[in-house]
Automatic annotation (TrEMBL):
Name of the protein described by the UniProt record: FAD-binding domain-containing protein
Keyword hit for Chaperone: no
Gene Ontology biological process terms, A to Z: secondary metabolite biosynthetic process
Organism from which the protein derives: Flavobacterium branchiophilum
Domain FAD-binding: 18-345
Highest taxon of source: Bacteria
Any one GO molecular-function label of the UniProt entry: oxidoreductase activity
SUPFAM superfamilies: FAD/NAD(P)-binding domain
Membrane-spanning parts: 15-36
Pfam families (alphabetical): FAD_binding_3
Keywords: FAD, Flavoprotein, Membrane, Oxidoreductase, Transmembrane, Transmembrane helix
């Protein structure tokens, strides 16, 4: 009997040591969870938001990200929830087309729908909601304990995946020297319903830019019932002083209300009740995307400017590459994490450079802008 108990205890200890903790149940964390599950690796997700949280808006996912998602989500379900963009047109604020370009059928979807699809595959017992990290203790091996805001403390297993976003508590504790800096360009994003716009937009992505630079808005059909619109503005020239819904409405009317667009009812149908004011921040580059037993994924590892349209796709690629590295080096986590970090830092460096170039051009008058192409960073 004692031998059986010892064997069971040893087996349980092994499971606890090999289970991977995922801190954060957003796109990065849930993609990671699906890929680990598909690979037969045990995990548990801790997410600060409540169950069925619908916070967030939408995003563009280039083809490489869509291919990865299609390996863990039923392709028909995925496509049914979004839209493919086939053409991009840039206009000035007087409605004159500057450039039209064919897109690579880039996919768009709401955060709400993508999170739901990713959670659908995961057992409810593998995700714990309402779990916000308050603090951690650190030893020479890395994270020793994790303290949550509800008072619970856990001792993490051999590996902790930090997918808790740009404001990652764990990263700030492990790397306090890496700071966030406010970006000069901010965004307002909203999703709304309009039958007229749904029909007229179809698979088009339209972006309107002020001729003096520093002010633009883009619009596209997000799915069969919703349109997404975002405004980008230079906060030095056009600060948003009132962040309330009324302040956002006034700001949009003041800066965009007289612009000429083909969508004549544009400002009549916009609904700002769910508008999100995105104060874009940039993270100091990390020396490596891991620290001992903690590895950073998505925005916790790197911040990409919205001009690149690569933030979500980068998180998906992070999860894919990290999973491959762990499987290839299952008995050597140090080697796996170094490999992951080396691969992803090279790709992220390209997108960060492209984002910086696109931001510099955005601040210039249109006649000085060299690039009017699709606002998606690509690796050359």
């Amino acid at each position: 009997m004692n031998k059986i108990i010892y064997i069971c205890f040893s087996f349980l200890t092994k499971i606890l040591k090999t289970m991977i903790l995922i801190m954060g149940g957003g796109i990065a964390g849930l993609t990671m969870a699906n890929l680990l599950q598909k690979s037969g690796i045990d995990f548990r997700v801790y997410e600060k938001a409540p169950l069925n949280n619908e916070k967030g808006h939408g995003f563009i996912i280039p083809n490489d990200g869509l291919k990865i998602l299609s390996t863990i989500i039923d392709a028909d379900k995925l496509v049914d929830k979004g839209n493919f963009l086939t053409h991009f047109t840039a206009y000035n604020h007087e409605g004159m087309a500057i450039k039209t370009q064919q897109m690579n059928e880039d996919f768009v979807i709401s955060r709400r729908d993508l999170v739901a699809l990713l959670e659908e595959n995961i057992s409810i017992t593998s995700i714990v909601h309402h779990k916000k990290v308050k603090d951690i203790t650190i030893s020479d091996k890395g994270i020793e304990t994790i303290l949550f805001c509800d008072g619970e403390t856990i001792n993490p297993p051999s590996l902790v995946l930090c997918c808790d976003g740009i404001y990652s508590t764990i990263r700030r504790k492990l790397m306090p020297e890496k700071k966030l800096e406010a970006s000069r360009v901010h965004e307002i994003v909203t999703i709304f319903k309009s039958e007229l716009l749904l029909k007229s937009l179809g698979h088009q992505f339209k972006k309107f830019k002020h001729q003096d630079g520093g002010l633009a808005f883009g619009i596209f059909k997000l799915n069969e019932s919703e349109v997404l619109c975002y405004a980008q503005f230079d906060t030095h020239k056009h600060p948003l002083l009132d962040e309330s819904i009324g302040g956002i409405v006034s700001f949009m009317q003041q800066h965009f209300g007289t612009w000429v667009t083909e969508e004549t009812d544009f400002f009549n149908v916009l609904n700002f009740q769910n508008a999100h004011y995105w104060k874009v921040n940039e993270l100091d580059p990390l020396d490596a995307y891991y620290y001992k037993n903690a590895v950073f994924v998505g925005d916790a590892a790197h911040s990409l400017l919205p001009f690149t349209s690569q933030g979500v796709c980068a998180a998906i690629n992070d999860a894919h590459i990290l999973t491959d590295c762990l499987l290839e080096n299952e008995n050597n986590y140090d080697k796996a994490l170094q490999m992951y970090s080396d691969i992803r830092k090279l790709d992220i460096a390209i997108h960060k450079k492209n984002g910086s170039i696109l931001r510099t051009e955005f601040l210039m008058p249109i006649h000085k802008q060299k690039n009017q192409s699709i606002p998606i960073s690509v690796k050359s």
